Amino acid sequence: MAPLLLQLAVIGAALAAVALILISFVAFITATEMPHLHRHEDEKFFLNARVQREALPSIRDSPTKQLSVVVPSYNEEKRLPVMMDEALGYLEERQKQDPTFTYEVIVVDDGSKDETSKVAFKYCQKYGSDKVRVITLVKNRGKGGAIRMGVFSSRGEKILMADADGATKFPDIEKLEKGLNDLQPWPDQMAIACGSRAHLEKQSIAQRSYFRTLLMYGFHFLVWFLCVKGIRDTQCGFKLLTREAASRTFSSLHIERWAFDVELLYIAQFFKIPIAEIAVNWTEIEGSKLVPFWSWLQMGKDLLLIRLRYLTGAWRLEQTRKVN
Known about the structure:
This protein is an alpha/beta fold and 324 residues long. Helices cover 44% and strands 15% of the residues. It has ten helices and nine strands. The chain has helices at residues 2-29, 80-97, 116-127, 143-151, 173-182, 201-207, 210-227, 243-250, 260-270, 292-311; strands spanning 45-47, 53-55, 65-73, 103-109, 132-136, 156-161, 192-196, 239-242, 275-279. The strands form two sheets. Strands 5-4-3-6-8-7-9 form a seven-stranded mixed β-sheet, sandwiched between helices. A two-stranded antiparallel ribbon has the order 1-2. Helix 7 packs parallel to helix 10 and helix 8 (243-250) packs across helix 9 (260-270). The longest helix is centred in the first third of the chain and has 28 residues, at 2-29. The radius of gyration is 21 Å and the shape is globular.
């Protein structure tokens, strides 16, 4: 009996090794090059409040604002106004109290099929195009791709990623700013503060089905095992980066859809960029684009591919990368 069990164990280990080699080989040969950083001609411009085209700046330019807020938006005509009203209300009040404070909000319409751009442009007309800009992508790139386009068009010393659903209370940016400052001194002026919902996990489990809870724990394990250590919530869409950290990480990003946050933090840890995880207020908003089973399955696949493609050298991280 014992020899038979030993033989089965050896066969099982051999099959697992062969499967891993095959998966690694497939991951290597199917690895795409870095997604094109160039823009479609129409994506190089934005409409100012007078409905005239102006060229977008580049992240390679010197910053002229203290804060840029990048809001990726796909079919968000209904949810966007609530988020924009809260964000701009906070930012305007902060500027009123401190006239030296400067900001911009960049709404990136990720190829929406509804009136997202028109809704966002109303805020440009109300507040002026120096404060609110709308970038309309010709085709859908995915959340990570949309944020990257906004980041590369930003003027801020610090850049905040904020979801269009307004699930995170915008004044919590002050918590991220404190977390970022506590990381000083920043190596090469690079640091990241990640909003986190990990403190709400017990509450969310009580409201979720066993199946969704199992998917959540499975995803968290894969993130920890394959890619990112020490960050409990990689997926919160409320992240604050220094300009240098944003340029370094987004210039190296391959994944453009749901799992892009994981690769972003994987890249940050590779470059030893200090990261703070900060608890924020968060409320689940109806209308999520995330389809529980299929989206988690896609993200799980992406996590495995991220690890294997970096491990096999199909994807490489360079110290510098030109941003077009």
